[in-house]
Design goal:
cell membrane, globular, mainly alpha, membrane, 309 residues, 11 helices, Inner membrane transporter RhtA, single chain, EmrE-like
Length: 309
């Protein structure tokens, strides 16, 4: 992981941070598919948040004292959004094909990117990314009769939570130095998820196999990508970040091929191309002050000053 003492100007470009996060979280998702049968939805989320929170707490050693009430409100809302996003998405995976669940969930950040965009070119990029996501996931060819309405609702809720996560991650990054915000967020999320995990999974949480897989998921799906995304969002607009996340389905397909042995079809490859084109379009636009200095998605792209420590 990046040296936490390194000044942000020496970090890789924020786009690189997002791309590494995208690849990491999808390989973590492939590993999570093997944990769900062992400890269930709540158990999987509890292990993921508890272990990743513990790892970051030890490494970051976040400052707790001297925080304002508004700081705690923002990071707590961030934790709620993150926890709910994981619970609802994992829940949807028990009812829907993973491609369909990913497509529905991804509508959240895509909608956020469309709402925040003020350029027709960006709206076309969002449309291209949406078509690409649907082709990659295979959602278009899935008969309606095979879909689970509860699963659809869970995946849709996960998408809403994902959009909220993007906005709240930026606000948290503006208020907390280094990686203090994500460390505190994961700790709060663990407090929310662990009791439910213990009630549903019981002693299965402490089985060596579950702990080992949970540790891998904690690193790949939480500690590494959330930290990188938080750092990247300090220098990217939320709209750009949302469309960059369109690479997630392509990364998921790659992880499925390498980890789960899933073969990619020609249609999926076409979908990947559309997603890549969308990302290139967004990356090719001129950089404004908001993207460079850390824009608040809620104020139209104006820089957000760091809250005094």
């Amino acid at each position: 992981m990046t040296d936490l003492a390194t000044p942000e100007r020496r970090l890789p470009h924020p786009v690189v941070l997002v791309l590494v996060a995208v690849v990491s979280v999808q390989f973590g998702g492939a590993l999570a598919a093997t944990l769900l049968p062992l400890v269930g939805v709540f158990g999987s989320v509890a292990l993921r948040l508890a272990l990743s929170g513990l790892l970051l707490w030890v490494v970051v050693r976040p400052r707790v004292r001297g925080r304002s009430r508004q700081d705690w409100l923002v990071v707590s809302l961030f934790a709620v959004a993150l926890t709910a996003m994981n619970l609802t998405f994992y829940g949807s995976l028990t009812r829907l094909p993973i491609g369909v669940a990913v497509t529905i969930e991804f509508l959240g950040p895509l909608a956020l990117a469309a709402v925040l965009s003020r350029r027709p070119r960006d709206l076309l990029a969002v449309a291209s990314a949406l078509v690409g996501v649907m082709l990659i996931s295979g959602a278009v060819g899935t008969p309606w009769a095979e879909l689970d309405l509860v699963g659809i609702a869970l995946a849709g809720t996960a998408g809403v939570c994902w959009a909220a996560y993007i906005v709240l991650s930026r606000r948290t990054g503006a208020r907390f130095e280094r990686l203090d915000g994500i460390a505190l967020c994961l700790a709060i999320g663990a407090v929310l998820a662990v009791p439910a995990g213990l009630l549903t999974a019981g002693s299965a949480l402490w089985e060596p196999e579950a702990l080992l897989r949970g540790l891998g998921i904690a690193l790949l799906s939480s500690a590494i990508p959330y930290s990188l995304e938080l750092l990247a969002l300090r220098r990217l607009t939320a709209g750009t970040f949302g469309v960059l996340l369109s690479l997630e389905p392509a990364a998921a397909a790659l992880a499925g091929l390498l980890v789960l042995g899933q073969v990619l079809s020609v249609v999926q490859l076409v979908g990947m191309l559309l997603v890549l084109i969308a990302s290139v379009v967004v990356l090719g636009r001129p950089s404004g002050s908001g993207a460079a200095q850390g824009a608040d998605p809620g104020d139209g792209g104006h820089p957000v000053p760091d809250t005094p420590a």
